[in-house]
């Protein structure tokens, strides 16, 4: 089973205890080092709230379930505030290799809705495994050098 | 790529994906034939000089689209950086220097530095305006004499003048092999 950031944005978030809508998914905060979703952001602007992945009881195709509204919390630090503002969204961000070459734009990110583990990044017509993800931030998503298109002889290609 | 293509590139952290600075200037040691480091500007609309510098050994990679560092701690206060970068000597610029062979032939005038893309800033040669006219690239031996007006290269350098950077890349290993440097 797999889901994607693009598909999941806009999905309603529902409290199990009240069966009421508490908002809609707006952004994802990814822990790039561990290749997993750290939190989802619900709502936008000043009203944006975070839900730690651990507090998501079910990430379903039609709704994201949480225990109750207590799962929603305000952003606590600069990184979380940036995530709440959408500045850390991986989708739409430039993808750089650790060698400083741009590969294109991240079009989508697929993940396992059961575990919150990131599976792959869609960059143009390429699917880059999450194992190559080194970092993610406000400027770029950074990938391992191995994702750079192969060249006949790297050492003898100082530039194009 | 050439050193002038590095100027203005964003400096991006591998782990944070953040553009923490941009390249202001490339500091190069002609005697050592290597990059000493980079001076920096701030990013953004009100960009001015950033006090910190980036020593060469803190560079993760110099790429076509960005200079990569591991994290912001790679940026160093000038007083903690090697002297060459904290207080770069302006008279040590090789740009404009005449390239002379040991035999006394002028190959041209240095226009720019040629670096390996994706390396940690390895300078592999110079872009020159050839004495006979037109641009060319010469590979760089490990060390050479530099006076501030001219630099002296081995005679065989003349055989390794190339028309483009790709050709230069292929010539470097060959050249260094001939010199017994590889």
- Decide which structural class fits the backbone of chain B: mainly beta
CATH class of the largest domain in chain A: Mainly Beta
Estimate the mean pLDDT confidence of chain B.
88
CATH 2nd-level architecture of the largest domain in chain A: Roll
Helices and strands in order:
The complex is a heterodimer of chains A (160) and B (182).
Chain A: E1 3-4, H1 5-8, E2 12-15, E3 21-31, E4 36-42, E5 49-52, E6 56-59, E7 63-66, H2 78-84, E8 94-97, E9 102-111, E10 118-123, E11 126-129, E12 133-136, E13 140-143
Parallel strand pairs in A: 2-7, 8-13
Antiparallel strand pairs in A: 1-9, 2-3, 3-4, 4-5, 6-7, 8-9, 9-10, 10-11, 12-13
Chain B: H1 3-6, E1 10-13, E2 19-29, E3 34-41, E4 49-55, E5 61-62, E6 67-69, H2 83-86, E7 98-101, E8 106-115, E9 123-130, E10 135-139, E11 145-146, E12 150-153, H3 165-178
Parallel strand pairs in B: 1-6, 7-12
Antiparallel strand pairs in B: 1-2, 2-3, 3-4, 5-6, 7-8, 8-9, 9-10, 11-12
Write up this protein.
The complex is a heterodimer of chains A (160) and B (182). By secondary structure, chain A is mainly beta. Chain A has 2 domains: 3-84, PRC-barrel domain (SH3 type barrels), CATH 2.30.30; 94-147, PRC-barrel domain (SH3 type barrels, Roll), CATH 2.30.30. Chain A has 2 helices and 13 strands, in the order E-H-E-E-E-E-E-E-H-E-E-E-E-E-E. Chain A has helices at residues 5-8, 78-84, and strands spanning 3-4, 12-15, 21-31, 36-42, 49-52, 56-59, 63-66, 94-97, 102-111, 118-123, 126-129, 133-136, 140-143. In chain A, the strands form 2 sheets. In chain A, strands 1, 8, 9, 10, 11, 12 and 13 form a 7-stranded mixed beta sheet that branches. In chain A, strands 5-4-3-2-7-6 form a 6-stranded mixed beta sheet. The longest helix of chain B has 14 residues, at 165-178. Chain B has helices at residues 3-6, 83-86, 165-178; strands at residues 10-13, 19-29, 34-41, 49-55, 61-62, 67-69, 98-101, 106-115, 123-130, 135-139, 145-146, 150-153. The mean pLDDT of chain B is 88. Chain B has a 6-stranded mixed beta sheet. Chain B has a 6-stranded mixed beta sheet with strand order 10-9-8-7-12-11. Chain B has 182 residues and is mostly beta strands. The A-B interface holds A 32-33, 93, 96-102, 134-142, 145, 148, 153-160 and B 1-2, 5, 9-10, 12-19, 60-68, 114-118, 124-125, 165-166, 168-170, 172-173.
């Amino acid at each position: 089973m797999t889901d994607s950031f693009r598909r999941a944005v806009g999905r309603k978030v529902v409290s199990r205890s009240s069966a009421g809508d508490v908002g809609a998914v707006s952004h994802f905060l990814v822990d790039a080092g561990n290749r997993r979703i750290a939190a989802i952001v619900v709502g936008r602007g000043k009203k944006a709230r975070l839900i730690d992945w651990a507090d998501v009881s079910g990430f379903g195709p039609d709704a994201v379930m949480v225990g109750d509204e207590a799962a929603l919390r305000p952003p606590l630090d600069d990184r979380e505030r940036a995530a709440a503002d959408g500045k850390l969204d991986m989708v739409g961000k430039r993808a750089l290799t650790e060698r400083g070459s741009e590969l294109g734009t991240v079009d989508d990110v697929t993940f396992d809705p059961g575990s919150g583990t990131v599976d792959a990044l869609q960059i143009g017509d390429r699917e880059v495994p999450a194992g190559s993800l080194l970092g993610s931030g406000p400027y770029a998503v950074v990938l391992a050098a191995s994702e750079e298109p192969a060249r006949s002889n790297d050492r003898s290609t100082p530039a194009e | 790529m050439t050193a002038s293509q590095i100027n203005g590139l964003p400096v991006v952290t591998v782990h944070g994906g953040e553009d923490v600075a941009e390249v202001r200037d490339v500091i190069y040691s002609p005697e050592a034939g290597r990059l000493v480091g980079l001076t920096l500007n701030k990013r953004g609309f009100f960009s001015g000089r950033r006090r910190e510098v980036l020593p060469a050994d803190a560079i993760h990679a110099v790429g076509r689209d960005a200079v990569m560092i591991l994290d912001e701690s790679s940026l160093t206060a000038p007083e903690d950086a090697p002297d060459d970068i904290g207080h770069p000597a302006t008279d040590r610029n090789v740009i404009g220097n005449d390239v002379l062979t040991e035999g006394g032939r002028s190959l041209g005038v240095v226009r720019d530095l040629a670096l390996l893309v994706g390396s940690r800033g390895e300078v592999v040669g110079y872009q020159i305006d050839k004495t006979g006219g037109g641009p060319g690239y010469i590979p760089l031996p490990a060390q050479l004499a530099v006076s501030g007006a001219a630099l002296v290269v081995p005679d065989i350098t003349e055989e390794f003048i190339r028309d483009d950077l790709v050709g230069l890349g292929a010539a470097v290993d060959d050249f260094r092999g001939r010199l017994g440097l590889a």
